[in-house]
UniProtKB/TrEMBL annotation, chains A, B:
Name of this protein: Transcriptional regulator, LacI family
Cross-referenced Pfam families: LacI, Peripla_BP_3
Recorded superkingdom: Bacteria
Location of the HTH lacI-type domain: 17-71
Keywords of this entry: DNA-binding, Repressor, Transcription, Transcription regulation
GO molecular function, one term: transcription cis-regulatory region binding
Protein's organism: Vreelandella arcis
SUPFAM superfamilies registered for this protein in UniProt: lambda repressor-like DNA-binding domains (SSF47413), Periplasmic binding protein-like I (SSF53822)
Amino acid sequence: MRQDASPRQDQRDSASVTLQDIAAHAGVSRSTVSLVLRESPLVAERTRLKVQRSIKALGYVYNRGAAALRGSRTSTLGVVVYDIANPFFGAMVAGIDAALNREGYVSFLANSEDSPARQQRFLERMREHQVDGILLCPAEGTDPALIDTLDDWGMACVQVLRHVGEPPFDYAGANFHQGVCQAMNHLVALGHRRIAFLGGHSEHSATRERWQGYRESLEHHQLAYQRLLRSTVTRRDGVDMIEKLMAESPAPTAVVCHNDLVAFGAMLGLKRLGLVPGVDCAVIGTDDVEEASLGDPALTSIATHPHAIGEEAARLALRRIANPAGAREQVVLAPRLQVRDSCGAARPASDAAVPDPAAGEHA
Amino acid sequence: MRQDASPRQDQRDSASVTLQDIAAHAGVSRSTVSLVLRESPLVAERTRLKVQRSIKALGYVYNRGAAALRGSRTSTLGVVVYDIANPFFGAMVAGIDAALNREGYVSFLANSEDSPARQQRFLERMREHQVDGILLCPAEGTDPALIDTLDDWGMACVQVLRHVGEPPFDYAGANFHQGVCQAMNHLVALGHRRIAFLGGHSEHSATRERWQGYRESLEHHQLAYQRLLRSTVTRRDGVDMIEKLMAESPAPTAVVCHNDLVAFGAMLGLKRLGLVPGVDCAVIGTDDVEEASLGDPALTSIATHPHAIGEEAARLALRRIANPAGAREQVVLAPRLQVRDSCGAARPASDAAVPDPAAGEHA
DNA sequence: GCTAAGTTTTAGATCAATCTAAAAACAACC
DNA sequence: GGTTGTTTTTAGATTGATCTAAAACTTAGC
């Protein structure tokens, strides 16, 4: 009836074909078949071909579970993120998937929802499944000792985007510090003197790095105005924070945001106040998600390349699995400031004491 | 040194503790320990407690690979989506994760990028790993025979969101047909007579269902104007399509969009033309992603509840695994029209021959 | 005290691969 | 033809759990 090419008809119904069956069919031993499967150079060309024919004829399926029992690798990895519904993590997971796919690895995914308990449960499951390694965006409140524990468990662990504990550890992420400095330099060059930073929650490494960049930039450019608002990092937070800030006196002429969601919120908040983003107040986001270029106005954003970070993290994990004793690595990707319409020059009309001549040069 | 509660000190260094070791420690047989682990009622209370103490004392870790080799289940599932960077799928995966987590299942994730070849590679890997089942958002161009093949492989397969082939099959998704009808009814009640449908690509079930809803609504309300534009479904497509439509004469007074991204694009396109979304042209999206409520104006959208769909799909898969011979099920969730500001009444000023009195009732 | 029935426990086979160490096959050389 | 050295192949042990069928231990009844 069915006309497809697979040799399903030949197989006995759904009963699984084993090395033993192939050995019998090809007239060799189980060991030889195993060697063929693992592409050992020990086996003679003629034998190899004969065995491969039998493998095809019987529709053999490699049993990775059985192989893992005797061997040392499972070719599986665990991936933990805390918000898979966030497109940033989606892109990152896509990068991980692409890199692993190339190497024949496959990954379990868990969404911790920033709950250390849930994260812990998943990691214990991963241990039971004997994954070779873990890619971990640690949930908020993760005990730094966890990294050592994973090491004791014999699973390679690469932290991604955030990290807990002290180096040396394996890590892949973006240089948020540098990214914020780039944004600040750009704004200062445009003549801005009152720049606020919006958002960031509790004590994550990724937040600390941004805030440090902000503070150091202020110092470096000798700017007196400093306004750093903590918050969760949703679009609504952006609305709330910008409304609060613009009611202050003096109000900022520019804001740098923890991520693009906050930045979208800030732009929306400005519009609700009857102000024009990029004219009345410059807005810069972080991540450069796909929507950034299609905003109104198009959002200037610090591009952090989640797909690339995912790929780097996966590759680092594979390196560590291949060489568990090797030196720990930190792969920190440089961000790039993607300039668009939401960060015009500071208005001369605003109450700046001395209009900056530099503004003209760069406007 | 380290003060945590885990009995790591007792274990011999990283060598794994087996049932045999526990049996020796507790003074019982390997079989008894196995029964305790699986909570068999056969084991006497005293023995059970004794064995559980030994399990704790030795820091035993269950080896699921070994268990799967002898047993029939792996407690693993494969999940295939075609665009994990899309927040809609992110939310769906979060729903799947939540439902599986409760049942002690864990899932492999793959991002097919709508490539049947890549999807096929992943499914073969899943077979090698002997997953109990697959949650599949089939890639574009998937051969309908694939569903039967998976069945032959002995893996439960639940299609999600899209489906290929003929029923009966297991499926979880949203009632897109009904959703579009709700949107159309709403627009008609507001007085709209020229309603276009934007977006949808090639022959997916999820697209066909939307288009059918559109066409049947037109017929039901006896509307002569029909304009259905095919496209991929990105924000940019929305911009392009609305610009094209508004240049036509007569132009539509409302558009229903394949998803929220297209709708955002349509709103942006209207603004670029100097028109006001919700006033000059009503816009309705599909999915009701988080951003919908924060748009400018807030977007009316057909909420399809991706998280709930993910949960339903996962639960259905677990049911099928528990009972492979059971009747196939289709779980189709009813969408809900989330009315916001982007779909005002059709303007009396526009060239409608007869202003509809119904518009007043609902405005 | 012995048998029968019920409750607990266990030895040994099994699952499907890998690994080790040794055997078999082949070639080359004296 | 026998020895040596390679190249191939293989038997059998091993991995860590589950399963089956039987053994060992209780308890009840006469």
